Amino acid sequence: MLFWNNIYSQFDPVAFKLGPVAVHWYGLMYMCALLGALYAAKWFVKRDNLGFTNQILESYFIWIEIGIVLGARIGYILFYDPHVDYYLSKPWQMFNPFIDGTFVGIRGMSYHGAIVGFFLGTWFFYLKHKINVWRLLDVVALSVPVGYIFGRIGNFLNQELFGRPTDVPWGIYVDGVLRHPSQLYEAFLEGLAVFLLLYVYRNFKKYDGELIALYGLFYSIGRFVAEFWREPDFQIGFVYGDWMSKGQALSILMAIASVVLYMLIIKRGKRG
């Protein structure tokens, strides 16, 4: 497995260049994630006869994409970046893709911040269109894990979010240290596994909204487990003892919120 172990030394995270702008594989995977989630949503709406037009879905995805990007970036600054005071005093710098005149893109996104932005985007979309928002959120619950797989593969190709040191034969060398390919573990646990669970459960759900609540719970469990193989953010380290990362702490909060939401949805559904 020597080629696999040393793949980073033989692979350029830059796919190609357009003049001074470097297009990274991560950017391409992000586009695949967005399109994959959108077309998965269209497929489920058509297959399960959920009553949403392509125009509504496409418009909705634009709204939530704006919310996700804003929430992910701002969430990273608030949750993980050690220079939060600087960004709060100069908020426009959060989205500055240049460093000393060099285009480097926007680095640092928080999944849990993206969740907040996603729900805000959904709320504003609902206020404008007055659709069955819980049914729409269930479509999102099925389609987002599809896109998430591409996103984590993008992290792997971009050589970021490294795993912890290991001696397993499928480890990847990063600066001479053999590490878990934790990005791929997350693609499986938080993407594929969550999708399969929700895909099966959708045939048994009784009320609209169940799938999005279960998505939050299943994702949180997958993320919590995967974090045991992922190197904690260097600027934060462990937030509890010598084992709990910031991602795990946020996942616990998200899991609790998801269980509460699921119970409220069931209670509301039983009331008719």
In short:
The protein is 61% helix and 9% strand. It has 272 residues and is mostly helical. The protein has a two-stranded antiparallel sheet. A two-stranded antiparallel sheet has the order 3-4. The chain has a two-stranded antiparallel ribbon with strand order 5-6.
How does the SSE layout of this entry go?
Blueprint: H1 2-5, E1 14-18, E2 21-24, H2 25-47, H3 54-79, H4 84-89, E3 98-99, E4 102-103, H5 111-129, H6 133-157, E5 172-174, E6 177-179, H7 182-201, H8 210-226, E7 238-240, E8 244-245, H9 246-271
Antiparallel strand pairs: 1-2, 3-4, 5-6, 7-8
Outline the biggest β-sheet. 2 strands, antiparallel
Number of helices: 9
Mean pLDDT: 89
Terminal-residue CA separation = 58 Å
* Whole-number count of domains: 2
The computed structural class is mainly alpha
Helix content: 55-70%
Shape: globular
The poorly predicted ranges are none
- The counted number of beta strands is 8
Helices and strands, in N-to-C order? HEEHHHEEHHEEHHEEH
Read across the widest sheet, the strand sequence of neighbours is: 1-2
Strand content: 5-15%
Radius of gyration over C-alpha positions, nearest whole angstrom: 19 Å
Family: Belongs to the Lgt family.
GO cellular component, one term: plasma membrane
Main location: membrane
Membrane topology: Multi-pass membrane protein
